[in-house]
Amino acid sequence: MLNCKPSLLTVAIAAAGMSVMFMPQDVNAADNSSEQQASIERTQLASTVDKSATTDGNNNVASDDADIEQIERIKVTGYSRSLIDSINTKRYGDTVSEQLSADDLGALPDVSMADALTRLPGISAVRTGGQAAEINIRGMSGGFVFSTLNGREQVSTSGSRSIEFDQYPSELISSAAVYKSPKASLIEGGVAGTVELATVSPLSKDNQHNFVVNARAMYNDRASEVYGAKEHGDRFSFSYQGKYLEDTLGVAVGYARLNQPSVATQFIGLAYNDVKDVDGVSGDINGSVDCPECEYISEGFELQHLGGVETRNGYMGAIEWAPVDNFVLKADTFISRFDSESFARGFRVKLGGANASVANPVLDGNAVIGGTFNRSSSSYTRVELVNDDNQDFDEVDNYGVNADWQVTDNLNVNVDVSLSSAKSDFRNGLLWSNVAVDANADTPIFDENVSISYLLNGLDLPNIGFNQADAFSDIDRVMVSKYGIYPFENEDELKAYRIDFEYTLDNDYIASIEFGARYSDRTYSNDRSVFEYGNDGAFSGSEPPLQLTNDMATVVNWDGDFGYFPSYLAIDLDSALNAWFPNGTPQPVQTWGNAGGVIDAQGYTTNYSWSVLQSGEVYEEVTSGYIMANIDMEIGDLPVTGNLGVRVVNTDQSATMLQNVDGDATLGAQNITDSIGIINQNYAPTVQGDSYTDVLPSINLNFKITNDSQIRFAAAKVMSRPPINRLAGDISASVNDDGEINGSSTNNPFLKPFYADQYDLSFEHYFDEGAVVAAVFYKNIDSFIDTFAIENYDFKGNGFNVPDYITDDVSGEQIETTNGTYTTAVNNAEGGYIRGLELAYTHVFTSLPSPFSGLGFSGSYSFTQSEVESITDLGGDSVTQALPGLSENVANATLFYSYEGFETRISARFRDEFVSEQVAINEQVVNFDGETVIDYQASYQVTDGLGVLFQINNLTDEPTKSYFGSTSKTGTIQYFGREFYLGLNYAM
């Protein structure tokens, strides 16, 4: 399918391009162009010279070459230098972009690139475990953000397309850019924007050799409140760059290690997924269609201590060879290993749903936010003691070879071959304990005398009370009742091949023409498996609970704001499992099982067909080509630069599926064997997918209205492909006794990309000590993914293996099948606009007298609106939610100062409320409260090579808080602690 219907954007770009290309030009264009370049050079120089230097009457640096030679330069280093470099890169770029320079990333390195990127205008972060991980750009979540490393597409360990930027140590990245407007030569994929990370090019460095070592110790001030958590960690990095063989061979290597405690204390409210008439009053407030007098009840809540260790090892290497002046060959690699081992201990409270006995209910509208819940004979009301063990081992590998050949004075050819791969091995181990009447009894009895009182307190911690509170820390009452292991492994690999040409023209309008082609082949796979033993809501006779001994458990108290919660038993996982499974803990498997369960090869009952059905592969092949004209001309006396181009992209996507055909061999049924040898004959393996072609025009124009001011305009059609995991095939279809075919799928291999027409307009003013930028933008997005029921769905026409007839079991009559309903993920949610304003101001006060000349400020503010909304019922009633990732107001500011080797800065980043996925709860998209995160950093250069450094991250211990629709229905309240760093830097 060729998606080339002309849109208003396409016509606008074509018209703008034609008017620029055929506008008459001044006959003195060549002279003006030279003067423009000279002006550029003078402006770049002005940011680094002493104010006593020779200037003309307009306070510009004198253009006389002899005078320039005599200018006394001052050495601007550290954060000030990085800001100047970033401003210059933005100023002379050909797209709407934001920049981070090498000095910025290396002088006082952030924990990761996620932290570094959040200092840029219009960019905010979603914190995971207290650390910035996913970034949002212009009100759009990480799934709409495309990322490259050294110009090459990156795959992710997230299991989707959202890049986890905490995988990238800032010490190993030499520069970063965020492209908010695309150009035809950029790889497609970012509706929100494209993040380009780059590692060092050793031959481009000025010094013959550079060697940098960084070491620091860290401390988390909340770890002492969490039993078993580590308080201390460390960071270490080194890098080397050298040039050899008369500067024809360059080598760069780097290593960065992060070993830090992972700490949190949290309350998590669960969704309102039950209904019950708790007040006996009916009226206009209806709980559900089936029970109009009912109120909504939450599933429950969790109170937990989290602790553990995160270890990240990053490696970077590059070899660059330039045997002749017109040819450069470079091979580079970037590797990251991020391992996290953590525990979660505390309570998981189950309120008991519609069958619980509820007294003294407190309502917010038609939702229960408090009351006393008592266990009844048919309810599941209980308090579980949890001692969970989570392991997450992530791997990122990137390799590339690039050849750049200046064939003639006019023609340049660039060839690139790359491999990007990611692997995530997440293992969730859950250990449940429950209260017994007497744990020492020969046959322990589950204590069903359960009463839970609670009252939510909005975005503050709730009031709670348990009648069993004293038993939670009593080894004679608590017994281990269930253990479960739930691994989720995914792998993602992309091979890409690219060739680009640039031909320089001797033309008064077009400086050069760029064109090229790219092919990529991507394979994504996920594997699910499971092991469970015991019962989390009772004591099982066939799988009896474990009695604890003193060496297995420790009484844990809550501290600080959580100090009023009851004590509980922290259980040593290894000791408990060794006692419960003396022959070794069974490992998870993929299994079909059956209705009654099966005994697996390890001797334990297993019955989880989803572990097979939710495993599979996705394939994606992309072929693209582009042509782009680089504009360099004048309209009257107004210099105009930029580009005009089009990118054509063909995508071929497919996924493996298992269709339930009830063992009908004529429909492709095969014998499929699971991990423990059980054979299932009901399913037909198949591969289904779609192919489509997109045409993506773009234009970027820069109008230089004065030597110091310019206006940018950009317009483009952009696309973001659906999350790679949403293309997976997890369909199911069945035929009922009447011959009607119905089916469902969480994912869909036929999903199309998100498309948007976008426009950017910005004004930029530069002065000797900084810049002021104001920008507006508008995106019109076509659609979003939603789950939708399609009536009268053509199953056979869409590739389903379904029968034409079924046979009635009683009469033997053949019944013709009919199409029913198919519920699946579709590009159906209504699109809409996203629009906003961005303001940025940077000032390095070098003109002030010493010692104030080292003072500076950098800040930005963005306001974003969108008509795009989604519907959520997690808080009870169906209510609208904003676009995930959108904060209307986002701001960041940095105040910095340097003097005689001392440098300090304090940075704050703010975002108001937004919508995102709730911490630790899959697929619960909730509202998050606004947050302000403040960091402080300082350093002192003891000698030319040796420096000391001090940092505090999350200076105010800012928590993460979320809620379901209204703040009265508490979601997450999570505190992470402050992180203190003290260390040394050495460079030579």
Automatic annotation (TrEMBL):
Domain TonB-dependent receptor-like beta-barrel: 487-955
InterPro entries, A to Z: Beta-barrel_TonB (IPR000531), Beta-barrel_TonB_sf (IPR036942), Plug_dom (IPR012910), Plug_dom_sf (IPR037066), TonB_rcpt_bac (IPR010104)
Localization in the cell: Cell outer membrane
Superkingdom, taxonomy of origin: Bacteria
Keyword annotations: Cell outer membrane, Membrane, Receptor, Signal, TonB box
Keyword check for Cell inner membrane: no
Protein name as it appears in the record: TonB-dependent receptor
